[in-house]
Amino acid sequence: MSVEERLSELKQRIIELLPDDVRISSVEFEGPELVLYTEDTQRFADDATLVRTLAKELKKRISVRPSSNILMEPERALKVIHEIIPEEGGIKDVYFDMDKAEVIIEANKPGLVIGTHGATLREVAKIIGWRPSVIRAPPIESSIIKSIRRYLRDESDFRREFMKKVGRRIYRDKMIGDEWVRVTTLGGCREVGRNAFLLSTPETRVLIDCGVSVGSEGMPYLYVPEVSPISNLDAVVITHAHLDHSGLVPLLFLYGFDGPIYTTQPTRDLMALLLLDYIEVSAREGKKVPYKSAMIRDAIRHTIPLKYGEVTDISPDVKLTFYNAGHILGSAIAYFHVGNNHNIAFTGDIKYERTFLFDPAFNAFPKVDTLVIESTYGGVNDLQPSRSEAEKNLKEEIERTIRRGGKVIIPAFAVGRSQEVMIALEGMQLDVPVYLDGMIWEATSVHTAYPEYLNKNLKNSIFLGDNPFLSDIFAQVDDADKRREVIEEKEPSIILATSGMLNGGPVLEYLKGLAADEKNTLIFVGYQAEGTLGRRIQKGWNEIQLSDDGKIKNIKIRMDIRTIDGFSGHSDRNQLFEYVRKIRPLPSKVICMHGENSKCMALASGMHKKFNIETTAPMNLETLRLV
Description:
By secondary structure, this protein is of the alpha/beta class. Helix content is 34%, strand content 22%. It is built from 21 helices and 28 strands. The strands form six sheets. Strands 12-11-10-9-8-7-28 form a seven-stranded mixed beta sheet. Helix 4 (74-84) packs antiparallel against helix 6, helix 11 (265-284) runs antiparallel to helix 12 (293-301) and helix 11 (265-284) packs antiparallel against helix 15 (440-449).
């Protein structure tokens, strides 16, 4: 049966299921959704059971959108919105989501925008046609989010046709009767970096993550026969935005990929931020730039954001659901239901502990046959203190440095560790400034734009105006003159700067200026990968070479070097064991990856002995048959 014939059948069935006075103008597959276009959008808004009934009967994700003929031009609609909604509502921004025929209104006081029992919004919808949605305005404006919204609006024609193409590919007829499931390891096995896995069936090929090795610039094995040609991939799934999981996504478009990228909305925005910084830093340091910024934009317009818990068809025989991974903002465990009965979960990076930012990683799956789990801290002795103990240790080290008049440098990833440490520092009530350098402020603004992805306590604090990220102790450093001023000032201070492994970024400027003074302290709060400058200093190197105005300069390391465990976004060995133990029923097979060789082997061996289940720690370029 052709897609057109299937759509015709679905439209007829929808008409039969809906009340006689509800008219449907057209039905279309758009991405993973079956979209109903109608002039009667208010009927669906007033009666939520209509969509639930259709979804249950048709076993599809249903979306209802207004027919294009009732949509007012965005410029005119914007004027109407400002005329109807009272000024006291505090509208900060209005943007039109062309994909969903929805207008999103950001306001300081959402209740006043919505009106009593939704009366104001209903009036807006009736006049402009667009479906209005109101969200609380984030306390910090994000330039990357505004740029992405503007770009996607400009690309609305492309998006419309792209989503139709994706939808028709997802709901194509199955061509092969066989059933098997395989995973090919393309990177990230017995190593940290360049994560990439291929999930394949007779019908489908899905790439999970496509990262770069930050220390060595190593790339996944994208040229092997299992992946080639890349243009035949059905989808790319990105678990989170860190470069070792997303750094080479734009390169796929150079190789001919033209399909969808599934991820969460915060991951999409943070990925764009980190990718743009990656190519900028690479160019500045004279390294080979693997792709141009135009390819990052191409990746953004091919992205289909999904929320946690949404079951989504991504091919004729594969459904995808994202769950909270607890690692960084928007990080997700990718859970696949394949064929009739095989379920496989890729954890990406997980934290199975409540942190200052997030709830613990999700593990209440319906059923997991195969679990692909990270092993960063999978070694026998890889045990970390709790967040509260880590906070106490960090405070002691900072206070010791302040007492002797020194400065503290904390290298941190812009996304994740920086925000955790910011909240910890804000609660310490230290009488010194905390300087934020690099992308930290912009990454923090993205966090405040998605409070629903944060834990309950932090989300409520932000909504109630007690936002720890806006504390007076934080000062942004945004140019070289300010950076030099921070280095040269005599008073103690704390400097939180990127990058977290000292492999580039403004933290190196602070290292050049402050490393030789014994009063100062360098504190590591995150994992230092093999091959990075951070790992070398952590091992005890007391002299390093850095570029300074085009010349190589020898830097003596006389400052104290400390490592404070407990702030990592990765689970330690005990948490990894506890995470698996609480999956019910236990997985039939566990694949250990994303860790140094010894860590992956130790975790696989330990889990086999503990749970009496099949485990493996494959090398890169292995193909494992699961069914």
